[in-house]
Amino acid sequence: MKKFSFIRIMVFFILSAVIFTYESKVVSIPSRAMGKSYKTTVVTPDEYKNSSKNFPVVYLLHGWSGDNTDWVKQTPVEELADKYGVILVAPDGDYDKWYIDSKINKNSKFSTFVGKEIVEYIDKNYQTIAKKEGRAVTGLSMGGFGALYLTIKHPDTFGSVGSMSGGVDPKNFKNNWGINKVIDPSKSGESWDDYTISTLSSEFLNQNVNIIIDCGINDFFIESNRDLHKKLLGMNIPHDYVERPGGHTWEYWANSINYQMLFFVKHFPK
Predict the structure, then answer these.
(1) CA-CA to 270 of 20 to 30 Å: which in 6, 11, 23, 83?
(2) Best CA proximity match to 71, nearest among 9, 109, 24
């Protein structure tokens, strides 16, 4: 029995060494638009180390109050990097900046930073498929809104986009989660429609982009996600839409990322 147990333990460690061989590190990426640098977590798969090929990239956006470490701490994304041979990039969205270029906070330019500057840095410093078809972006909650918004605002950057439990209609929660720090039409002269994904979604008609949206049926964002789904259907914009049991929780998102990663890999260049 002792010998058998020892062999089982050795096999476990050998398999662990083989399976979990991704590399995760934090880099500081400068923003010309904001005049400072922000931390970004980058995960490369094991095959990256000795390969001369270029890899697709999935950008992962955190939710309100999060940072660049959330995805690797809370979900199995590092293992998925190895499984599918993709580079993962998780930027810091500065807690509550909603991934937009704010009209009322001139120092908050996260649409430019994440949608342009980080992508340029990653393509320059890593072996990437440096074109739209080789990039996907997704996120949870604030990050789900951010992923869709960035794809609309930077139509030549991302070929695939996902949203999990996305806060896709900020005006419904304008006094929550720091939204009024970066969006306030009464001060900027804008309209809430400028930040409502269902209103902006007609832009997808002019883009060749693959879309996947999901939300838990017990999530407080479920109705706005259903409205977005109906709007996309009404315009005949192809997309995957999924509702599952669950709420606004890491348990839901840790499960959801598995399906979204499959969706992205399906559409990446082979």
Answers:
(1) 23
(2) 24
User: What confidence tens digit (pLDDT) does each residue in 91-134 have?
Assistant: 999 999 999 999 999 999 999 999 999 999 999 999 999 999 99
Q: Report if residue 5 sits inside a domain.
A: no
Q: Is 14 within the bounds of a domain?
A: no
Both tokens of 149, joined, read 């918004």
Size of the chain, expressed as the number of residues it contains: 270
Residue 167: Cβ-neighbour burial (10 angstroms; 0-12, 13-18, 19+): buried
- Cα dist from 4 to 7, 9, 10, 261, whole Å: 5, 9, 10, 38
In a domain, 94, yes or no: yes
CA distance linking residue 121 with residue 89, whole number of Å:
11
CB 44 within 8 A of CB 23: yes
What CATH number is associated with residue 132? Answer: 3.40.50.1820
Question: What residues are paired with 215 via a beta bridge?
Answer: 243
Domain that holds residue 114: 26-267
Name the average pLDDT for the chain: 93
CA distance 42 to 30: 15
Please write the tens of the pLDDT for every residue from 211-242.
999 999 999 999 999 999 999 999 999 999 99
Name the residue type at position 257: I
Task: Name residues whose C-beta falls within 8 Å of residue 222's C-beta, 6 or more positions apart in sequence.
Answer: 215, 216, 243
Residue type, 25: K
Q: Which helix (H) or strand (E) covers residue 123, if one does? A: helix 118-125
The candidate with the shortest Cα–Cα distance to 214, out of 142, 141, 160, is 141
Q: What span, in angstroms and rounded, lies between the C-alpha atoms of 129 and 34?
A: 27
Is the residue at 8 inside a domain? Answer: no
Q: Read off the pTM.
A: 0.92
Q: What is the count of structural domains for the chain?
A: 1
